[in-house]
Amino acid sequence: MAETVVPTSEVRAALSQITKRFDAGDPEPVFFGSHRRAQAVLVPIATWERLLAHAEDELDLDVARRRLADRRPWLSEEDLDAALAAAAKKASGRA
Fold first, then answer.
1. Strand partners for 6
2. Is residue 44 within 8 Å of 27, Cβ to Cβ?
3. For residue 54, how many C-alpha atoms fall within 13 Å in the half-sphere facing its CB?
4. Residue 14, exposed/middle/buried by CB under 10 A (0-12, 13-18, 19+)?
């Protein structure tokens, strides 16, 4: 995973240089921590946004797969409207 782990104190001291490097287009992450053990990583914002979008896509795909595997019958639009109206009535204390 992380080839080089930079001590946290060095990252703290070099943070402005690291962000300038990212601004210049360097995509390499900076792994840092203590005792040569990576505890965190700094990545350019573009990399973070791609990772986040990918993670969200994977979660959406997982939800879709679970829903497609669910063989229970779906409510019709009318049944759904009736269930929502009944729940709203109950929640308002008019049940």
1. 32
2. yes
3. 6
4. middle
Q: Measured between alpha carbons, how far is 53 from 47 in angstroms, rounded to an integer?
A: 10
Q: Where are the alpha helices (DSSP H) in 24-76?
A: 45-69
**Across all residues in the chain, what is the average pLDDT?**
92
pTM of this prediction?
0.63
Gap between the Cα atoms of 73 and 48, Å rounded: 39
* Residue 10 in this model has a pLDDT that exceeds 90: yes
CA–CA distance, 73 with 62 (Å, rounded to integer): 20
Return the beta strands (E) in 4-93 as ranges: 5-7, 30-34, 37-42
